Amino acid sequence: MTHPLILTGIDLPLEPSCGSTIWCSDVYSRLPGHGYRTVYAHLPGSGTWQHGFAETAELTAQKAPYGPGFEAYADTLTAEVRGLVRDHRPDLIHAQHLGFGLAVAFARAAGSTPMVSIAHGTDVIAATENPQAHTALNEIVHASVRVVVPNAAMAAEVDRLTGSRHVDRLVIVPWGIPLPPAPTALPRAGRQLRLVHAGRLDANKSTITAIKAMAGTTGHRLTVIGSGSELDVLTRRTAELGLTDRVTFEPFLPRQDLFKRFGDFDAMLFTTRTLEAYGLVAVEAQAHGLPILYSDVPGLKVTLGTGGLSFPPGDATALATLIDELAASPATRQVLHQAAVANARSYDIAHTAAHLAALSRTATKGDR
User: Where would I find the H helices in 39-116?
Assistant: First the structure.
């Protein structure tokens, strides 16, 4: 029996450089267990990532961000996708991101192939700030038979951005992670906390809030693990605040190496400025036993549950207060540790894959 084929992908290098590519690897490596094959399209990468995709297709288009060159880039990708559709004859297309160039190309090249689009967060944020991204999001949603969002906050934002014209297509499928067998970060005694901030260093992740919070505390130490456009600004500001002895920077770590580091810390700082689709690394940290001190942006409170404490987005003073309060109460750290582990157990990636497979079965029966 031939299994139905899903064509998907992201116009990013085949690297674990962001939550979207990691999530796709986690999910699509499990879909064969639900009767699906997948071809994942991508830009060139180093070739060293041990991903979970059984079949991949490398694209040749030169990446172009939103701006004067974006439409030409989307046209080039569309031509490539038409070739992929012709060669692979997919039963279904999954367009990752509501606005990336490859998702636009999927929408334009799908023809009679039904398409499910999947929101990841950065795409929705871009559509609130950039007219070109907003137009792309509407084109992709219009071309989709279903639009997958990870939480109600994201569904509400996509509904707003599309003028409530496609609310019947929005479907919430909670994200998930591969769960570890046991937590590796255990509560310890002491009033000086070892804190970690991990992930992409861009403006929306607002790592600067974590660094400014350290200036409002004493004794605690912060390790920033990651790379991105804000790194130079963050290191310079750390020096200006006199924090180089308490705030250290480490480069991006592959997932399994980061997991090994979680046991070195007492809590994670998660300082997103606006919308957060899921908070992959925060849930991973919870699964390993770390409480999360997080900015109260749409979606995160539901995702992280009682396994953390929230503060107003961008409020470094409030975050500093939370850090000191957590440091002063070993009992609170113990309670949050237990709640974090319990909360993460509800986000099993196996459930995400099962939901997406079931949704895909219904989508292949619908009309565009």
Answer: 70-88, 101-109
